[in-house]
Amino acid sequence: MKKYAFGIDIGGTTVKIGLFSEEGDLTKKWEIPTRKDNGGCYILSDIAKSVEEEMKKQGILKDEILGIGIDVPGPVLEERIVNKCANLGWGVLDVTAEIRRLTGIEKVMVTNDANSATLGEMWKGGGQGHKDLVMITLGTGIGGGIVHDGKIIAGAFGAAGEIGHICVNKEETFVCGCGKKGHLEQYASATGIVKKAQQVLDESDRPSMLRDETYLSCKAVFDCAKKGDDLSLQILDFVGEQLGNACAMISAVFDPEVYVIGGGVSKAGELLIDLIRDHYKKYAFHASVNTEFVLATLGNDAGMYGAVKMVL
Ligand SMILES: [Zn+2]
């Protein structure tokens, strides 16, 4: 008898659902909208309905399902209880109990999205073959996850892997999304990169291809840098310096084998990896100067892979 499992990534706008084989191959994926009205009370029943419809369509029986792994954009206790998730409108919710009740499937495990993306990249993505790694997700903000000996480190207060909130500039006067000042996220997230670019453009009259852009985006900065634009390269060198410095601090504490760099900003590719690595080598303790830096490879599917990994 063939066995299957579901890996489900609940985001603020869509729910990504993946049907996996027992070996962890993604056999089918689809999306449904995240209905956040009425305190997000329809989200889990929508998921259960969609999962059951797909099983019916494919003729898969309940006892052929090994389990359902779910990730959410919020803190999770005991791999089952979501502890307030503003993005979904949830308060404290036992997701495992609810999905069990709705589907009749016994094995249901829950984690937060940063941790599941990290697990996914370790299992089937850029971090394959490693058991001690740090994943850094560079998007609108900066997320992160830490794996030691193949297991996620959640931390005593659930804050392990909050790499975006490492303080890298004590002189900063602007405030980070978290309320404190000078955090990595303010300089190396997509938002931070655009802000830095605008600042550099405003502070001088130096010519730059960036001045021709009607809409200053993070992608434009990388594109212009790749074409040899000096000012763009200077901006990205600054970004690489912040990330390299933060990674050197992380290595002094945790000493991972590899850093996996993902998120929208990582589409910049090897240019970004090289910049981070160069600055990292400058700051890291001698014993860990050769730590690897690689790109994440699963993109938006990383969460589904990590979620299903929990139940396989
Ligand atoms: Zn912060």
Notes on the structure:
Strand 1 and strand 2 form a beta hairpin. This protein has 312 residues and is an alpha/beta fold. The strands form 3 sheets. It has a 5-stranded mixed beta sheet. The mean pLDDT is 95. Helices cover 37% and strands 23% of the residues. The two termini are 16 Å apart. Helix 4 crosses helix 10, helix 6 (190-203) packs across helix 8 and helix 7 (218-226) crosses helix 8 (230-253). The chain contains 10 helices and 13 strands. The protein binds zinc ion. Residues 165, 176, 178, 180, 183, 185 line the site of zinc ion.
Helix and strand arrangement:
Layout: E1 4-10, E2 14-21, E3 26-33, H1 37-40, H2 43-58, E4 65-72, E5 76-77, E6 81-85, E7 90-94, H3 95-103, E8 108-112, H4 113-124, E9 133-138, E10 142-148, E11 151-152, H5 185-188, H6 190-203, H7 218-226, H8 230-253, E12 258-262, H9 270-283, E13 292-295, H10 302-309
Helix pairs in contact: 2-3, 4-10, 6-8, 7-8, 8-9
The protein binds zinc ion (ZN).
